[in-house]
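Example complex used in Figure S2.
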Amino acid sequence: MNNRPSDFRVSRQTWHFPNDVRILSTATAVGPKEGEGPLGALFDKVYDDMYAGQDSWENAERQLLEDAVNLALKKANVTGQEIDVFFAGDLLNQNITTNFTAEKVSIPLMGMYGACSTSMLTLANAAAQVNSGYANKALAACSSHNATAERQYRYPTEYGGQKPPSAQWTVTGAGAAVVGTGGSGPRITYATIGKVVDMGIKDPFDMGSAMAPAAASTLQAHFSDTGRSPNDYDLIVTGDLAAVGFPILKDLMKTDGYDMDRVYNDCGLMVYSADQDVFAGGSGCASSAVVTYSYLVDQVKRGQLKKVLVCATGALLSPVSYQQGNSIPCIAHAVAIEGGGS
Amino acid sequence: MEYVIAFVVGGLICVIGQLLLDVGKLTPAHVMSTLVVAGVALDFIGVYDKLIDFAGAGVTVPITSFGHSLYHGAISEAEQHGLIGIVTGIFEVTSAGISAAIAFGFLASLVFKPKG
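Predicted assembly (458 residues):
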């Protein structure tokens, strides 16, 4: 820890982690639809029904988060006692999945809410605490569940409300990462914290359009702060812009002089295949979490990808806010994950 | 021929509902209420009964017919019992439908578990 704090702050939005901050382990637990998707074989635990052996969907989501956390600890060969701080969040009122899970693992908790951007919000904060020395090891995790999210944000599934093709399918799953120093795991080098962007979109069934400008704002800040360009990365993913938001982001970036074509993909498009009836694609905290903590980290560990930027996108609406006619404020947080060297 | 008319007229009511959802951006609950009130209004101006003669099940099956039943119930009771009949009438004519919805909903919830 020889670096001075001034080495950490790149700008108001971007943090640098020069102290060998690494992902020591990651784990994912998902539901049946995600298990049948193209990344199915990479997930650590796949449940074959939405209840995950529990009697309610809320309990099922807790089970997924607990599984992801416990598996990540096991893979890093550490116990909860060795983790100094737990950054986690979910999509339910009062972060209830997180709070119940944190009670079981008994790690000091900092609950966070960033809607679907929570995956990178928690990872960025875990990296910052480890980098600055406030924590030796930190745990970052988040979860979402299709049926609990439907009940939370839209209508209970039993209601049978119609959805337009621009709607998205909330990913049922949870992802967790143990962050520490040393070893040979993927390094976390930069994080860019997003500003809230609201372009006046009011349709909760078209969150891709609403979130794309927030993702563009964060990515532009990241490139300008770090002096990097899209082509410095082997892959840049957004969290859950899906089929509607994906081309909008590419256009927004192109207008600003950043050509993303060669390196850009979206977790909401990667987690399901086109024939899975998921409307425009996946969404939810778990969309970016389960893709990042399985496929992306695997690829970085194997050296197939050297530099990856994950920009998790979140729509910060509440059912009350949109029912009262408010537009949807959005946010995006980006974390750079890089391979190589011990 | 009467099947075709019922199909087309019932379908048109559904098209209106779909447009309210997709173009009007109304919530499903708002669409349902709007169609019920539209049924009441159409009955008030004397159109709904003529529509039933013309299209049969095409207009008795969609939710607009619930508005039609409410209006009929209220008017017929009002003729016998005055103002208070408006209140009791809307329950009298429609109670069979509402009771059936509750009863069948309860039975279905005993047998089925939502899958997601």
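The interface with chain A takes residues 21-22, 25, 27-28, 114-116 of chain B (CB under 8 Å). The mean pLDDT of chain B is 92.
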